[in-house]
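Page 47, continued from p. 46.
Same chain as before, 116 aa.
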Amino acid sequence: MKVVNTVKDLRNWVLSTKESGQSIGLVPTMGFLHEGHLALVESAKSENDVVAMSIFVNPAQFGPNEDFDRYPRNFDRDSMLAEKAGVDVIFAPSVEEMYPRKSQITMGAGKPPGTF
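Result:
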């Protein structure tokens, strides 16, 4: 099983895999794998030639006062489970790799400003 940490390396792997005529199944996760993730790997394996898994705890999925820093992470455990399940490549980028520039997008709930 291969582990890649950059978008460039993943892109190269995808291009090489497609050039060889293979189909790719993707199982996106935030890590801390469980049986549901492993069932998705089995499904992806049954429908594709190779399986890629992303492991990325996305800070954009956490709001203010939510526990991004306390979200469970155990890459060694996750990679062992992924390999046993038959994952061919793990994409495990850093936050800096995925967000090289500070986001200027903000989100809020409720009425738009200026409405009654």
